[in-house]
Write a structure and sequence with these properties.
Length: 140
Amino acid sequence: MGLDRAYVMRAIADLRRWVVYLRDLGPLDSDQLQRDLTRQLALLHALQIAIHLVLDLGAHVLADLKTGSIDEYSEIGPRLAAAGVVPTTLGENLGSMARFRNLLVHRYHEIDLSVVVRNLPDGLDDFDLFAVSILKLLPP
């Protein structure tokens, strides 16, 4: 069947748009975020959307590769790495993103903003690397 090119291109464009938005939030400070609820919510919701896009795209790729069913979102990254779609380190990072997504959705009151701020720059780079890896799967 193959990957749905239109879906992949649309999802990658959306992902890149959210990554630009997150970068445009500028330098972030966890104390400032604690005081600025609007900015805090913008950051966390944009992260949630970007992570969902990664997980949806990753699941789409794994389904196309017929790697079997996925029980947990956190399996998507490592399975993509095992299939050679993404580098091993990125696969592990995507697993961490999935666990963070669960925190955002289900246990948002436990989020440590200082950890989010500290990990954000590398996480944004992971989104970029993921997009490039997925685009390589599409025929020219």
